[in-house]
Amino acid sequence: MSLYWIEDDVTAWAPAKHMKEEDTPEGKMHTLVKLDGKKKVISDKLLKDLETVEQLELDNILPNLIDLESFSEGIILHQCGERYKREKIYTFVGTILVAVNPFKRLDIYNEEVIAHYKAAAKTSETPEPHVFSISSAALENLVNDQLSQSVLISGESGAGKTETTKKILEYLAAVAGKDTRRTSSVNVADQILRSNPVLESFGNAKTGRNKNSSRFGKWMELNFTTGGKIKGCRIVNYLLEKSRLCFQLKNERNYHVFYMMITDEEAKSKYKLADASMYNYLNQSGCEVVDGRDDNEEYIDMMQAFNDLEFSAEHQDNIFRTLAGILNLGNVSFAENESKEDTMKVDNMSYLQTACDFLGIPADEVGTALCFKRMETRDGVIQIPLDNTKCKDQRDALGKEIYFQMFNSLVRKVNDTIFKGEGDPGKHGDPLTCGVLDIYGFELFEINSFEQLCINWCNEKLQYFFNSVIFQGEMAMYESEGVDCAKIVFADNLPCLDLIEKKTTGLMSMLDEELVVPNGSDEKYCQKCHNAHKDHKYYADDRKNKNDFIISHFAGPVVYRTDNFMEKNKDQLAPVLCEALEASKNQFISDIFGFAKAEATAPGGGSPSKGGAKKLTVSKKFKNNLDQLMTSLDATAPHFIRCVKSNSKQKPLEFESPLCLRQLKYAGLFEAIRIRKSGYAYRFSLEHFVRKYYLCCAAGQGLDEKAYAEAIMKEMQNKSNGEITADDWAVGTTKMFIKSRKPRMALEDIRNQALSTHVIKIQSFFRMGICKMRVWADKWAAMRKAKEELAKKRVEAEKKRAEMDKRKAAKEARLAEENKRKEEERLRLEKIKEEEMAKKRDELKAITVVQGVCRLYHAKRIAKKMKMIKLLSSAMTQRDSNLLEVAIKQATTSQNGQRSLATADRKIKNLSERARAVLGELYEEQDLKGEILLAIESHDLPELERVLEIAAARNMMNAPEALHAKSMLEELQKSWGAKERLEMLTFMGNINAVLENADELKAAIDNARDFNVSVDDIAKAERYYDKVKKLIPIRNKMRVAVEIASRKMILECVDERKEFCKFHGDDFCKEEATAMVNMLRMFSYERQLRGGEQIKAPPLSAEAEGGVAEDHGFDDCRLPTWAFAQFKTISEADDDKAKEYEILKIEKRLDGDFDKMNEVRRVFKWVVNFATWRHPDHEAQIEKKYGGGAENDNLVTGNSKHRSTLKKTAPPADKKGKQTKEELKSGSSQRDRSKLKSSVPKQRLNTKKKSSGYGAGATKTKAHAKTPKSDQKLKEMMKEYSAFYDTHRIPLDWCP
């Protein structure tokens, strides 16, 4: 009796028996009972639509489901589940291998299994379903047919695709591996296997469904020789999941490699890495460790794989530097820019600087690119500020692009190693290859975006290829059976493919077009799709959301949300960031982005670039990859493996039927069944068909199986009342074909009627037999009674015989017992005699032992004394307190009532006393070490000095405790010194004194941090420095005004100083104020000198000619700005050639006029020598160039001392001649921030360290610094300057 498949919540499909049929007002209703006893009532119409199954099919678990009589979801799921429970995870459905993930290690992949399948491939034996059977079939077909092969592996995350790929490669490497390299100890087959640890580390991650999920697809094309040996391999990768780098869901992880490198202490130190919890790209999901996975062991394996694949140490270093840069980039955050409203800035510049250092790109340029969008307009380039969210998006886009390009370069490097040229020519002249495709399965999530559309597009493409192959296989089977298949129609999924990829009207083409139209957007794109495809069979719009559309795929309908479709399809980084990466100082980064730039351009697709080519969009790139893949697959003989995830909990050997059924649907397995049903859905072997239906036709006796089966079908066709026609069945060479379910059910009805007829006949014969048995019942009773009496007599005879045997056995037992007693008595007497003899021997032996013990006692006593003397001497030599205590205790303690050794022996007594003295010294040393440790713990400076003096007196300075204490004493002294220096600089009580020593205070604060001075002291000093820091600019401005002899600027500074004096007193910058007053006096005296009233700023050259004025720096200054800057550059030049070059520039500007040259030079010298702040002299270079210029200079001799002093006090420069950081802290002007030095201030601190730059330099020029305060000295200066001015007056018509 047939069973029916009905839907079930737990098992998806369950077999049920038909129990009864009832007539109801709603019509005929049928009651079905499942095997677990649950009932279900359905209508007559629904019953006819149910698939049937025989109990024999349920009980018979087949390795290849193609041998089933019927194909339905229920029977396929049942067969796979039953095999899985028996740890048979592989099942064939025709040539398709279904692999169900067991989530445990099975011992079915060892060398013996490989050898078994290798041998089976050479014979006609049909092996058990196994991944090795697919591998061996592909290899055998490649060798025998000389045709390329391919293995297509698909399934959802966690189904075991990656492990299946590994097993295929392991088999091929074991059977077809060949050492093709002389320079390496690793052959190419092993290198192909070693590529897995590298690609998995960078391309795999933990997801919610899988602990080691591949987040990219790959096509591994192995090249073969004609003899079936591996020659090399080429890998092509598809659609790396870039978004995982920046975002992971709960309990998921980023790519494995980040966590692996952090577990290695050497790498962690080298690349300045912290724990995973410190990085934004790693700590989002709360999952840092994966159960059952040791990241450190995986890191070691990956590094070994790098070496096996010939990655150089420099290449590996570049990869890890790039990873470290990406992690630091992810920590970059943004904040509002207070100086510019409505703009953002990088909040933590240190992370960005570290990332850019690793990547070799400028941090300031990258920071600007992250916060602003550059747009080119007709008026030029403008910067559009971005908000915080878009800044983070820009940051993440940069990180994703760097990781993506690095992963592509990794695949290229692996290919460089394992690709050894194309395979040998095959049957059609093409290279022999065996491709393995590990690709993502059909995806359906709650929210599906552009990535899911691409993945499902790929699966739709592969399903079309799969359907074509299956259909061709069906046609080949019909031809081999001799069945006419002309009427069979194959309905494929080509319309769905056209909907996605067709030119112009396809969804992807429309998306590319939307990128180039003005004001294109995701919403407009979605609306255009609705308008263009509203009548398409496989397309529908989602009424719940206007930005969604629905595609009916082969596995079911999927709703896609078009948000960010355009941005994801464009996938372009900001041009300024691309340019920075292409020009990176890191050659590795520069190379991979240079390669990406060359690869991104193609003859068609995308938006135009500078070179005229067009940048390909993601969809266009993916379509090109798919077309190349399909071209490769079309040239091969395909083999299919469908991986299935057995349960969502990842528990061993647990089978969730609904989950597995969904995956089988997504894998396209039931599409293959649909193709089969489009022809003849039911197939029986002729032997099975005749054995099952011979009851329906008695006229076929003596015929062969084919003729008999044909006769049965004709007979049943006549009895079917038209339900079976000639087109509904066909007889092949070995099989019977039934077209659909209706004729199949008609066959069952006719068979059931025949069975009913035969059952009635059998029942009638059975009833006749019962009647005959009743008639013969009495005869049988008499015969039974006679047999019972005979059996009773036989039993009594047996009892008598058993009694006689029992008596005889008892007699024999009594005789045996008597003999045994006598033998035991004899043995007892012999034993007594032997014991007496042994007693005498023991007495003699005891006497001998007593004598030996006495001799031994005396010997041991002497040995014990010698041992004690040796122990005491050794303990004193080693100065071991524990050993001394033990030795003294043993020497002075009495044992067993005997005197102690020290009491009994004088020598031992003397040694014991000496040992006590040594022990006392050791105790004192230990006490001193304890005091040292206590002083270290308490950080007590006086105590440390005291205990170290004692340790030095006792020669214990080499002890570890003393060395530690000495080191700590030095640190504490430095810390106290730094603290004392802070106190001296901050407790002056005078803000001017603190201002004068601002540089030294800043250095003291930095020094205090280095020596761990308390935070409160540092904070107090910083508050003093913060007060002074605001006053430094006005001080510097006063110095610059005096320096350049600007009357206008001096007057401004005088006014500004008055405001500051209100808050800080009249002593505020008194030295600078005095210098300004003196300079103003200079100007006043200058007016009073002969011809002084005619002095004025020379006219501008362009004004005299009526043209546009050129500003040469003349305002109210006696010295042009350009001249001052030029001479200052000369004075600071490092070598003679540079100075000569600068002098030549001045000469050129003055048209070679030596007089003008002298005039400008002398004014410069006056400003330098008679201002309070000085510059190094440049006179030597002027004399070298022009000669004799110093004879008329009255100031040369008198100022030579100042020049030498300035050279000595000039601040130090670093190795490159640049100003050091300390020089730039409080510089005086924009022209020179480092070398404008102050004269001696009124107060100068007497600290242990050197004072500030100008204070140190003023020591030798103290008398000169006080000169401006003396009226007498001022008169002498005026007289000297008057002589100079009369001789070298600047003409009124002069200009440079």
TrEMBL record:
Region ranges (Actin-binding): 626-648
Domain Myosin motor: 60-752
An annotated GO BP: actin filament organization
Binding residues for ATP: 155-162
Entry-linked PROSITE patterns: MYOSIN_MOTOR (PS51456)
Keyword Thylakoid appears in the UniProt entry: no
Record keywords, A-Z: Actin-binding, ATP-binding, Motor protein, Myosin, Nucleotide-binding
Record's GO cellular component terms: cytoplasm; membrane; myosin complex
GO molecular function, one term: microfilament motor activity
Bias (Basic and acidic residues): 1213-1235
Coiled coil spans: none
Pfam families: Myosin_head
InterPro entries cross-referenced by the UniProt entry: Kinesin_motor_dom_sf, Myosin_head_motor_dom-like, P-loop_NTPase
Highest taxon of source: Eukaryota
Family stated for the protein in its record: Belongs to the TRAFAC class myosin-kinesin ATPase superfamily. Myosin family.
Descriptive protein name: Myosin motor domain-containing protein
Organism in which the protein naturally occurs: Triparma laevis f. longispina
